[in-house]
Write a structure and sequence with these properties.
With about 190 residues, the chain is of the alpha/beta class. It has six helices and six strands, in the order βαβααβαβαββα. The radius of gyration is 16 Å and the shape is globular.
Length: about 190
């Protein structure tokens, strides 16, 4: 059985981001689960604020097209979502909005969000572990984009103490949660990959 292709996206650009660290741990775990993993930084795909008038006049920006093609090339996606004011980051929402309007001629709207599995996780310095962000992201993906989102998720509270010196998750419960989520993601990605 071929290795499922999984895309890992941290929803933050901040150099000291806990969610960039979570994405790195997820990448290691997915590699151990024999997935073919691609981890990206959204810093490499800068996008303007979403503007429907711009889409009508000029079409989507080149980086939105590249991100859509990346998404299309993978059967599973893990998003590490920070929490800003009880929601997802503007960066992550803007990225999803741009990808959602990229279509080939004759392609059904939001087709790139179908036939693949999404898994979500978040780390936050607060006690909720980015839970509000995950609720919002789940809604955006599953309702807004009609994507399949793995029911399990990982929410890591008190993120400043969540990682050890080797940048692994220090808490066994959080590490186990992440492994469960990623195993489900790999399983569903295999199903979607045929």
């Amino acid at each position: 059985m071929s290795a499922p292709k999984i895309l890992v996206i941290p929803g933050s650009l901040r150099s000291a981001s806990y969610n960039i660290r979570l994405a790195a741990v997820a990448t290691k775990e997915l590699t151990l689960a024999e997935a073919d993993v691609t981890r990206i930084s959204l810093a490499d795909y800068p996008l303007p604020l979403y503007d429907a008038d711009r889409v009508a006049k000029e079409g989507p920006p080149a980086n939105a097209v590249k991100l859509k093609q990346l998404l299309a090339a993978h059967r599973g996606v893990f998003i590490a979502s920070p929490e800003y004011n009880a929601s997802i980051t503007p960066l992550l929402k803007n990225t999803i909005d741009w990808i959602s309007v990229v279509r080939e001629p004759g392609e059904v709207q939001l087709a790139v969000f179908q036939n693949r599995a999404f898994a979500i996780g978040g780390a936050s310095p607060g006690r909720s572990g980015a839970l509000n962000s995950l609720l919002t992201l789940r809604q955006v993906l599953s309702i807004g984009c009609r994507a399949f989102v793995v029911p399990e998720q990982v929410a890591i509270p008190n993120a400043e103490q969540a990682f050890d010196a080797q940048d692994e998750l220090a808490d066994a419960r959080a590490a186990g949660q992440l492994k469960t989520v990623l195993k489900k993601l790999v399983d569903y990605a295999r199903l979607f990959g045929g």
